[in-house]
Amino acid sequence: MVSDWLQKNMRRYLGCDCDLCSLPINFTHSTLTDYPNTIWCHSCLELFTPTPRCLRCGLKTLTITPQCGECLRRPPLWSRLYCVGDYQPPLSHYIHQFKYQKQFWLAKPLIAQLNQNIDKKPELITYVPLHWKRYLHRGFNQSELLATQLSRTLKVPISNTLFTRTKSTPQQNGLNKQLRQQNLRKAFRLNHPLKQKHIAIIDDVVTTGSTTHHLCKLLLEAGVEKIDIYCICRTPETDNTI
User: Mutual orientation of helices 107-115 and 142-154 as an angle, nearest 10°?
Assistant: First the structure.
């Protein structure tokens, strides 16, 4: 496997085109420092600039707010949600390539963008598990790949055995929030006690938050005090049946 150092310097000295606009990327010193794993030019990187969001649920708001009105009425079980952007192009395109076309190398630039938004490290990182049947069929867990890369980037330990998916549930696509909650009831198990009080759960896309809700409930019952949700994409509220 080509080392990170060699990849970075090959791109710098041999040149590379932006993955979105196909124009050459000018790898200045500041580019390599601020965006060490970028595959996009400075102009296209602006597409990933953070937009004002509710810090609790991650949905867009007019201004950055600790909790939106919906979170004040029905707060989610987690404390913060960090994302790169909404589930729409170009991010949705990269998620599709990563998840369904097995372009695993995309984990590094996607996590590099997510890392720009994380302001406080957790004590432990974990991820949404797959049922063993789904894992055998797909051959990998996209959330595990993202969590592994983020663990390396943040230098935070990762747990690969914290959760088990005990029930093979139908696909969540097309279900509303209530049906997703019913679909996932008793679908997960916490495998061992925890000493960490601040844990982050990573998934590729958060839609209604039903999956992370069930995982958070298990963690809170185990004594965890703060839970952050990390994801690449947050589905806009109007599209939450995607």
Answer: 50
Q: pLDDT tens digits, residue range 26-71?
A: 766 445 555 667 899 989 999 999 999 999 999 999 999 999 999 9
Instruction: Give the DSSP letter of residue 84.
Output: E
Phi, psi of 234 (to 5 degrees): -115, 120
What Rg do the C-alpha atoms of the chain give, in angstroms?
18
Q: Taking the alpha carbons of 55, 56, 57, 63 in that order, is the dihedral positive or negative?
A: negative
DSSP 134-189: HHHHHSS-HHHHHHHHHHHHHT--B-SSSEEE-S-PPP-TT--HHHHHHHTTT-EE
Taking the alpha carbons at both ends of the chain, their separation in whole angstroms is 36
Condensed to tens digits (0 to 9), the pLDDT of residues 105-123 reads 999 999 999 999 999 999 9
Check if the beta carbon of residue 235 is closer than 8 Å to that of residue 92: no
What 3-state DSSP class applies to 193? coil
Cis peptide preceding 90, ω within 30 of 0: yes
Q: What is the pTM for the complete model shown? A: 0.85
Task: Tell me the three state secondary structure of residue 83.
Answer: strand
106: helix, strand or coil:
helix
What is the H or E stretch that residue 231 is in?
A: strand 226-234
The tokens describing 141, both together, are: 């867990």
Antiparallel, parallel or unpaired: β 163-165 and 188-190: antiparallel
The token pair at 56 is: 């609790």
* 102 Cβ contact list (under 8 Å, min separation 6): 139, 140
Phi and psi torsions of 143, nearest 5°: -70, -35
